Amino acid sequence: MAERAASGAPCDETEALLRVAERCMPGGVLGRHRYPAETDHVPVEGSGARIVDSRGRSFIDYSCGGGSLILGYGHPAVVEAVQTQAARSMQFVSIRNPLAIRLAERFTGMVRWADRVRFALSGAEAVMFALRLARAFTGREKVLKFDGAYHGNCDYGLWNAGPAADGADGPGSSSAAAVPGSAGIPRAIEDLVLVAPYNDLEAAHRIVEAEWRSLAAAIVEPVQRSYAAHPEFLAGLRELCTAHGVALVFDEVVTGFRHALGGAAEVFDVDPDLGAFGKALGGGVPISAVAGRAEVMDHADPRRGGAASGYAYVTTSQAGNPLAAAAALATLGEIARPGVLEAMHASAEALKEGLRDRIRRRGLEARVVGFGPLWDIAFSREAIFDQRSAARADAERLMRFHLGLIRHGVMVRAGGRSYFSTAHRESEIEETLRAAERALDEL
Ligand SMILES: Cc1ncc(COP(=O)(O)O)c(C=O)c1O
Question: How far is the CA of 126 from the centre of ligand 1 (A)?
Fold first, then answer.
C-alpha cells in the first residue's frame, strides 16, 4: 500500500502490531475501547491538538488522553519539566521531595476548600481514598452515589456507572436498584452502595433521611458525563450532608483544573468536604489527588497510630513522585496564566455554537451537549439532565456520527464525550465543523 507510517514503516507493520495485540491482550486492547476496522487506529505521536497514527493518518484529536492533556500534546512547558526531572530522579518512593511539596502548596492555594492533599496515581485511586477517609471520619460504611456517575474502576464506583435502561425503580424513587458494571465485584458491596437519580434532590433527601446513621459519604460528579448539576442540587446536597454528618465528596476528576482553576466548587460556589482529582492535573503524566478539609484529611496522618485510632491508609509507592509532580507544576503554572483557561472555554463555546447551527440548518432531532470545555451531540428532542434522559437518546446514531467524524479526520472517543485542550484554536474548530457537516449529512 502507498500509505506509510509516520516512522516510514510500511503499513502492514500496523497489521502485524494488531495481530500481536490480539494474541497478547484481552480483547486485543489496553482497556475498553475497540473501534470498527475502518476507524481503528494506533496513535504514535501527537503535537498540539493533533495526532498521527501508525498508518500516517493525521487527526484533530478530542480524546485528549481521556482529558488529561489539557494543554494538548507535547506542550513545551510540560515536556521540559519532565525531561529535566527525569534526568534528576523519577522516584523517591513516596518520600517528601521539593516538587511534591511545592505542588501541595500550589494545589491547596488553588482549590479553596482543600486544606490538605495527598497524591496518588489514578482518578479511581483518589476516589477510593476519599471514600475510605469519609468512612474513617464518620465511623459509618455506606456510600450514596448517583445513577450514571462514573467514578473509575474501584468496586464502590462501578454501580449504575454506565448507560442503563430504565430500572425497576422510576426516577424519584427512594432507592434505585444498584446494578454492578463488572463481574468480580463482591455482592457484599451492594449493601453498602445506594444509588439515587442525578439532579433529584427529593430522592436524595429520602435516602439520606432514611440511611444517614450508616451513611459515610455522598459522592457526586458536579458535571456528570455531559450534563451539569443544577446549582440548587449541589447546594441542597451540601445542606443535607451537613445536617446529617455525611461527608460530601466531589469527584473532580473531570472538572478539576478544567472547569475553573478551583474546580467545580468554584463554578457552583459549593464546597465539599473531600474531593478526588486526576486527569488534567498532570497534563498527561499520571497523577491524582485526594484533598479535603484538615479534620477529615488528617485521618491519613501516620502519627495517628493504627486503624483503631482512626488512621486511614492513604498512600502508594509512587505517591508524589517527582516526575509527575514536575509535570503537574508545569501544567498548573500554564493554566493559571491569565486568559489561558478562559480562551479554552471560549473556543469550546465557539465549537458548540457552530455545531448547534449545523444541526439547526439540517432540521435534525439533536442537541449539542457538554458543560464547559466538553462537547458531544445527543440525538434526542428532550433536555439531558440525568442518566435516564441520556439513555433515551439515540446511541446508535451517535456512534455513526462519531465514526463519521473519525473518517473525516476528527478523532473522538466513539460513544464517549469529547474534551477540549488549550491547543484547540480557530483553525481546528473550523476543520472540525467541516468534518461534522459531512458526518451529519451522511447519517
Ligand atoms: C468523573 C470520573 N471519576 C473518576 C474517573 C477515574 O479516573 P481514572 O481513569 O484516572 O482512574 C474518571 C475517568 O474517566 C472520571 O471521569
Answer: 9
Ligand 1, CB cutoff 6 Å, lining residues: 66, 122-124, 127, 150-152, 221, 251, 253-254, 278
Kindly state the cell numbers that stand for 116: 490538605
Tens-digit pLDDT profile for residues 264-300: 999 999 999 999 999 999 999 999 999 999 999 999 9
- CB neighbours (10 Å) of residue 179? 15
Per-residue pLDDT tens digits for 419-442: 999 999 999 999 999 999 999 999
Task: With a cut of 50, say whether residue 170 has pLDDT above it.
Answer: no
Q: How far does the centroid of ligand 1 lie from the alpha carbon of residue 150, in Å? A: 7
> At which residue does the C-alpha cell 468512612 appear?
135
Q: CA 226 to CA 390: how far, in whole Å?
A: 9
Could you give the residue ranges of the DSSP H alpha helices within 249-291?
Answer: 264-268
> Averaged over 144-167, what is the pLDDT?
82
Mean pLDDT of 175-192: 87
Sheet containing 374-378: order of strands: 367-369, 374-378, 418-419
Give me ligand 1 centre to Cα 36, in Å: 24
Q: Which residues pair with 116 in a beta bridge?
A: 292
Atom of ligand 1 nearest to the CA of 152: 6
Between the CA of 254 and the centroid of ligand 1 the distance, in Å, is 7
Ligand 1 center to 264 CA (angstroms):
15
Q: Which of 57, 81, 25, 150 has the alpha carbon at shortest distance from 323? A: 81
Distance 319 CA to ligand 1 centre (A): 18
Q: Residue of the nearest CA to atom 3 in ligand 1?
A: 151
DSSP 335-381: HTSTTHHHHHHHHHHHHHHHHHHHHHHHT-S-EEE-SSSEEEEE--S
**Residue owning the nearest CA to atom 12 of ligand 1:** 152
List, in order of start, the domains of the chain with CATH numbers.
Answer: 12-74+338-441 (3.90.1150.10), 76-335 (3.40.640.10)
Atom of ligand 1 nearest to the CA of 127: 4
* Residue from 119, 122, 151 whose mutation best tests the ligand 1 pocket (most atoms within 8 A of CB): 151
For the cut 50, the answer to whether the pLDDT of residue 169 exceeds it is no
- Arithmetic mean of pLDDT over the chain: 93
**Residue 334 contacts residue 422 (beta carbons within 8 Å):** yes
Between CA 226 and CA 418 the distance in angstroms is 9
Place of cell 534526568: 87
